[in-house]
Amino acid sequence: MNNNFSKRLINVCVFAAYKEKMKEISVLSFICSCLYPETRKNIMGDFEDLDIKPINKRASGQAFEVILKPSSPVSEAAHCITSPPKRDLSLDDIQKKLEAAEDRRRSQEASVLRALAEKREHERDVLLKAMEENSNFSRMAEEKLQFKMEQIEENRMAYLAAIMERLQEREKHAQEVRRNKELREEVTA
Question: Could you give the CA distance from residue 108 to residue 106 in angstroms, rounded to a whole number?
Answer without folding.
Answer: 5
